[in-house]
Specification:
Length: 1111
């Protein structure tokens, strides 16, 4: 990052203190006669008398009424910023007057408006002084003289009733001035009373004033003898003001200030003692003390200068904290505010803090937040402050793996980029840093949009860094990393080719001796290793090893990235070991991983990679030496990698998948499969919508057969119950996650009503957050919504954990066990068909007892014979959750095809059972639980035969089909028909929610690429599967889908069977009739007639409509 604009600590001239409009008694050793207050006359009625004036007296002779209106160009010779400014008028030794102490404005002006009467017969002239007060509370001495002049009474009265300016000798190039107005008024009795102080106080005041005078002489003449005299006077005052004295803090401050300016001018050296004096003064002026802000400012400026001269980071950190407290105490428009908030005040501190090394500690991040708060919207340094905070927060993510930190970093980075107009000098850095954070989040969460946006931002930054730009190497390196991530995700050869090309160019810009050459060497090796893993080019492997070794040679042992090069080199050595069987390679690989682990804290996210590489190394050595200890070590490191809490789910899921492949040969596969499903479930749970969950699951396309492979392995281990559990856990994750917020809690309400209420409320909050985030398109807003969703989800998960602490609810919302799943077979056995690459089987779940296994011959999908040998049972109905290859096969349509020796046909499935289908066993269990609550049936027919432009051809038989259904439905049901223009998306949704039985006649479309977009065609908008799933229809019973493709599954995640009919069952319908293929309009009508005739034939003599007869 380029350094910010060069700033310096605030000049000691001026320094400010916060003034308050207070009136104080004169603490001069002389005697003062009080001023006389007179009634205001015409022409001055708009001016208010000063509250500082003393009680009025009787007038006897001519006096002058003088009104001090304002002052301008009020600069101090000492450059010291005062607490306030006041006017001092001296007629003679007995008659003196002092105005209010008022704020000095940012334009070096003051407004007073004080009214005073002064006797003119005793002296031909009077003295007018402008003085600075360094205390807003209790003054010590008379302060510093800004200007002083003598003026005669005639000069004063020569202007009549008009205001006039009284100009003073120049100070630092400008003439201070007062605007006055004077008139003759009645006389009043003179008062000879005096305001006298003790002799000690008079001496303290005289010494203080002498110190100020000497200090001004030092500043203007640069004669050190005056500084020494000033310090001597101020030290004498301090000696006379012990800690208990009310002026002790003021005495400390005056002495500290004189010493401080001497330090700045190199006339004194001991800044540490000076800072201690400022600290002591601040301690005596706590919050709400009138001079608290002044002491804050003094200490801050001293810390700034010590940092500038000594480079002490602690000083600039403390200065930032002090400014954070000080700025709110400085009113806008005051001189203190203008100097404090200027480029030599707060901006200096911001700039120096921005140059501090990245600190991921909580204290370091707190400092960055303080600095950001010192940069409000519109501040020129805000983009840099945002960027520095973003990097610190991301560094904490790198150490601890909290996704909240990474999200925060991205939000900050987005704002920094948004604040950079075209041509901003640092825009390329902010683009690059934001892109880097997006790649990190992609690696952690696997969201493809993050990677695409990151590459776009990196390329934009690279365009701003043409050939010859000093930071082009950085852009080349970062963009190369993004293309490696794209290659690893999508297998795009062009991506890895581009990455290697970028790294080779970057390497030319980082020749030997460049401080970051080791990083580029290592990154190029990563790219070559990735290409080797996909394309098996041995030259890539050998070059990668050489590059890693050179990188390590250049790498210092305290380099925070060294561990990555260690475990990456370990990985390529293992790859070479599998080719050459050279034992030295695998031994070195294990040593390198162990060294990598030794450098990382227990929760560092990158420990995952070292565990993973160790697992591969031990497994490779086991394959070579067959030592069972190596297999045990491999499994142990797999466990450590898979459950490392600070690594993102995608990496851990990939590791679990890789082990399932290896474990099929070596054992322990059940653990690997279970771990995969648990991690995938946790990963999908972080996504707020069904669509995003499906996209996340589809990204692991290579693992889509794992549910059937897991069941196959459990069968081969003679663990049929676990096979059923794994099958259901793996294939039903989308439905399980979608339904978890709808889980009935009646039993929980009886056991713990408060906990049940809390759970239901949080479930609603999670649901609402998910739905609101689904419509957000702005990326920054989407990030904020994701953070909020995660926050609410954590609360929900805490409530679930509390529920599980109750003994009878210990498995609340956990994957069901076999005994729970067996409830699906209460009305007849359930047959689960499993077509794995390892075996082909059927598992029969009976009404009671253990499941039965029926092995099937492995064949290509087109050769499966669908009759099941040995499945005879007493039940009349069978439900078949078909898996993978079987998903789209109409098992109920299987006919006899095998002939016995006696010429008879062997019984097939249709002869033994009445078949129906269920997407998952839990879905069937839920539907039967819902049947316990029966309501009065209401039947609605919804038809759309004229969908309108471009939505499909007209279905001419729809209206007659609806009429037919209306006639066949028993009159005891409340019957409604919606068709034509009334059959809209909203109308259909309302009909689904308000009726228990539904018949839909329209076009149906299954979207194999985006199954949640599968839909029924209505008059206006499509009625999508997602629309249906978002509705909870607990009283729904039956739906007949007279439309095409309503029971065809997802081509990318076939085991999930995401289709329209399943969506209706998910929404609450107990029985659903769907279609596997396109249905002719006229044929559909005949099917409908036959179906409903059979369905309701038993109701002629009365009886209730029963959806279970649909099969």
């Amino acid at each position: 990052m380029t350094p910010s604009t060069e700033l310096h600590p605030q000049s000691p001239y001026p320094y400010s203190r916060l003034p308050l409009p207070l009136i104080q008694p004169i603490l001069d050793p002389h005697h003062f006669a009080p001023s006389c207050l007179v009634a205001q006359k015409a022409g001055i009625s708009d001016l208010k008398a000063s509250p500082s004036t003393l009680p009025s007296y009787q007038f006897h002779g001519p006096h002058t009424l003088s009104i001090v209106i304002n002052g301008k160009n009020l600069r101090l010779s000492s450059y010291r910023i005062p607490a306030g400014i006041y006017v001092f008028v001296n007629v003679d030794s007995r008659r003196r007057w002092k105005s209010a102490i008022s704020f000095l404005s940012s334009d070096e002006s003051v407004a007073w408006g004080n009214v005073v009467t002064l006797s003119s017969h005793t002296s031909p002239t009077l003295s007018v002084e402008i003085r600075a007060s360094y205390e807003a509370d209790r003054m010590l001495g008379s302060g510093e003289v800004i200007g002083e002049l003598q003026i005669s009474w005639d000069e004063l009265l020569d202007h009549g009733d008009e205001p006039f300016d009284l100009s003073f000798p120049p100070v630092r190039g400008v003439h201070p001035s007062l605007t006055l107005k004077a008139v003759v008024v009645y006389a009043c009795d003179d008062q000879d009373g005096a305001l006298s102080d003790s002799l000690v106080d008079r001496k303290i005041s005289r010494d203080t004033d002498a110190g100020h005078a000497q200090f001004v002489e030092y500043v203007t003449s640069e004669n050190v003898s005056h500084l020494n005299a000033a310090v001597e006077h101020f030290q004498l005052v301090l000696d006379q003001c012990p800690v208990s004295h009310p002026d002790h803090a003021t005495a400390l401050t005056n002495l500290a200030w004189a010493r401080f300016i001497g330090y700045i001018r190199n006339d004194l050296q001991d800044i540490d003692a000076t800072i201690s004096l400022f600290r002591d003064a601040l301690a005596l002026r706590p919050q709400r003390h009138p001079d608290h802000s002044l002491s804050l400012n003094n200490l801050t400026e001293a810390l700034n200068w010590r940092h500038d001269k000594k480079g002490t980071a602690a000083d600039i950190r403390e200065a930032a904290q002090l400014y954070h407290e000080l700025l709110p105490l400085c009113p806008e428009g005051t001189y203190l505010r203008s100097t404090t908030a200027g480029e030599n005040g707060v901006d200096y501190v911001i700039g120096r803090c921005n140059d501090l090394p990245k600190d991921a500690s909580d204290e370091g991040i707190h400092l960055r937040r303080v600095v950001l708060e010192l940069c409000p919207l519109g501040h020129q340094l805000r983009p840099r402050a945002l960027d520095e905070l973003a990097k610190a927060v991301e560094a904490r993510f790198d150490q601890h793996g909290s996704i909240d930190d990474l999200d925060t970093s991205i939000q900050l980075g987005r704002e920094a980029v948004s604040l950079c107009p075209e041509g901003h000098s640092n825009c390329d850095y902010y683009l690059d840093n934001l892109a880097y954070s997006l790649v990190s989040r992609f690696n952690h969460q696997g969201k493809p949009n993050d990677l695409d946006e990151a590459i776009s931002l990196h390329e934009e930054a690279l365009c701003l860094r043409p050939v010859g730009h000093k930071s082009r190497d950085l852009s080349l390196d970062n963009l190369g990393g993004a293309f490696i991530a794209r290659f690893n995700k999508r297998g795009n050869i062009d991506a890895i080719t581009r990455a290697i090309s970028l790294y080779r160019e970057a390497l030319t810009l980082r020749p030997p001796g460049h401080p970051h050459r080791d990083n580029t060497l290592s990154n190029l090796a990563v790219a070559l290793q990735a290409r080797y893993n996909r394309m098996d080019v041995s030259e890539d492997l050998n070059e990668a090893i050489d590059l890693y070794r050179e990188s390590l040679r250049l790498n210092r042992h305290d380099n925070p990235q060294r561990h990555r090069t260690l475990h990456n080199l370990s990985s390529v050595l293992c790859s070479r070991f599998t080719q050459t069987q050279e034992n030295e390679d695998v031994e070195e690989a294990i040593t390198l991983c162990q060294e990598s682990l030794a450098t990382l804290s227990s929760l560092h996210p990158d420990r995952y990679f070292s565990y993973m590489r160790l697992q591969v190394a031990y497994l490779s050595r086991y394959d070579y030496l067959h030592d069972p200890a190596d297999l045990s070590l491999a499994v142990e490191n797999f466990r450590l990698a898979s459950w490392h809490p600070t690594q993102g789910f995608p990496q851990r899921i990939i590791q679990a998948y890789n082990l399932t492949v290896a474990a099929e040969q070596h054992g322990h596969a059940l653990e690997a499969y279970s771990t995969f499903f648990e991690l995938l479930d946790a990963h999908l749970a972080t996504r707020s919508s069904a669509t995003s969950r499906r996209e996340a699951a589809a990204s692991f396309y290579y693992a889509r057969t794992l549910p059937v492979d897991a069941a196959s392995y459990a069968i081969r281990c003679d663990n049929l119950q676990h096979a059923v559990e794994l099958m259901e856990q793996g294939r039903g994750q989308q439905w399980s996650l979608g339904s978890r917020l709808r889980t009935p809690v009646e039993d929980l309400e009886s056991a713990n009503p408060n906990l049940a209420h809390s759970y239901l409320e949080l479930s609603k909050c999670v649901s609402d957050a998910a739905q609101s985030s689904a419509t957000i398109t702005d990326r920054a807003a989407a990030d904020r919504a994701a953070t909020e969703y995660r926050r609410i989800t954590r609360q929900w998960e805490a409530a679930v954990a509390e529920i599980r602490d109750l003994r009878v609810f210990s498995r609340f919302l956990l994957p069901p066990l076999y005994e729970d799943l067996q409830a699906a077979a209460r009305q007849g056995p359930v047959i689960i068909l499993i077509a794995s690459q390892y075996s082909c089987s059927a598992i029969i779940v009976p009404t009671s007892g253990d499941p039965h296994h029926v092995p099937l011959p492995i064949a290509s999908p087109g050769q499966y014979d669908t009759h099941l040998i040995g499945t005879k049972a007493a039940a009349e109905r069978s439900n078949s959750p078909a898996a993978d290859t079987f998903t789209s096969i109409p098992l109920h349509a299987a006919h006899p095809f095998r002939t016995n020796p006696d010429g008879s046909k062997e019984p097939c499935l249709e002869d033994l059972y009445i078949c129906s289908y269920t997407p998952t066993l839990p879905a069937l269990v839920r539907s039967r639980q819902g049947m316990k609550k029966r309501v009065t049936p209401s039947f609605v027919t919804v038809g759309q035969g004229q969908p309108g432009g471009g939505k499909g051809k007209a279905l001419l038989a729809v209206d007659s089909e609806l009429e037919l259904v209306h006639k066949l439905v028993p009159a005891t049901a409340d019957r409604t028909t919606i068709s034509g223009d009334a059959a809209t998306r909203a109308g259909a949704l309302e009909a689904l929610q308000e009726n228990t039985w539904v018949h839909l006649a329209c076009h149906g479309k299954q979207d194999p690429a985006q199954p949640y977009d599968s839909h029924f065609v209505m008059k206006d908008d499509h009625l999508t599967l997602l629309d249906i799933m978002e509705r909870d229809i607990p009283n729904a019973e039956f739906a007949f889908l007279s439309a095409c493709h309503t029971a065809v599954g997802d081509e990318e995640t076939p085991d999930e069977v995401i289709y329209l009919a399943a969506g209706l069952q998910f929404a609450g319908f107990k029985s659903v009739v769907g279609t596997l293929w396109e249905v002719d309009d006229a044929v559909a009508k005949h099917v409908v007639k036959a179906f409903y005739t059979n369905m309701f034939e038993d109701l002629k003599d009365g009886g209730a409509m029963d959806c279970t007869k649909a099969a």
